[in-house]
Design a protein that fits this description.
By secondary structure, this protein is mainly alpha-helical. It is built from 12 helices and no strands.
């Protein structure tokens, strides 16, 4: 119950920050002041906000269970490690879905504001929403994995933030340091931003969807391995 209250508190702060940045405070990401009439400022900044939000929500996924010794109760249940990992993953996903509700509110608000001139790009906005959701899934899987590997909630938050930011943009930064075109293309393809740009513009590629799914499966698989190792240590 305590963890749930903290999660909702973090989500509340996230929603307030979203509202201030995108609708009230004058800044380059304010949707109304850009005059563009779409959610592109939101799609540009949201991955960075999610990189902070999701580790903050999920940092206690397994760390509290380990520190409070309640992990042994979970091990006594007739559930496999993969089922335990998926249970935590979907629980974290539920909280994240609550935090992403403003996406739909922003979506319909923008649609109502500019419906008269018919310039609302429905497909590109829906694709951008899908991209944000897929990024949230990847960040959730990373956070879950770290909560088993580090076993300390503060470290999960800090290192989770670093890894999520790096996985989003760091690979592209490394690619720019390369003088080889082949290395540049190879390195930037590892980064989320390379597969998110198309979705945020309404371009749906199967390769991008496969990239996200492989990332989610990889980190969930690693989480299962870490949980199995912890089970044998008990």
């Amino acid at each position: 119950m305590h963890r749930t209250k903290i999660g909702y508190l973090i989500i509340g702060v996230y929603l307030i920050v979203n509202s201030l940045l995108f609708w009230i405070i004058e800044n380059p990401y304010n949707i109304l002041s850009t005059g563009i009439g779409d959610l592109r400022p939101f799609f540009e900044l949201s991955p960075w906000l999610l990189a902070l939000l999701i580790p903050a929500i999920g940092m206690k996924s397994f760390t509290d269970e380990i520190q409070n010794k309640t992990i042994e109760v979970l091990f006594s249940k007739p559930l496999s490690s993969s089922h335990l990992v998926l249970g935590k993953f979907f629980g974290l996903l539920l909280l994240i879905c609550v935090s992403l509700i403003p996406l739909l509110i922003y979506f319909f608000t923008i649609q109502l504001l500019i419906v008269s001139n018919g310039s609302f790009e429905l497909i590109s906005h829906l694709s951008g929403l899908m991209g944000i959701f897929l990024i949230a899934l990847v960040f959730s899987a990373i956070t879950l994995c770290l909560s088993l590997l580090l076993k300390n909630s503060v470290l999960v938050l800090i290192i989770g933030l670093i890894i999520c930011c790096f996985h989003y943009y760091g690979w592209f930064y490394l690619a720019e340091l390369s003088s080889s075109t082949q290395w540049f293309n190879a390195l930037k393809s590892f980064g989320i931003i390379d597969h998110y740009k198309g979705l945020s513009k309404g371009i749906l590629n199967v390769s991008d969807i496969v990239y996200y799914l492989l990332n989610i499966l990889l980190f969930l698989y690693l989480s299962t391995l870490f949980l199995e190792r912890l089970k044998f240590q008990k």
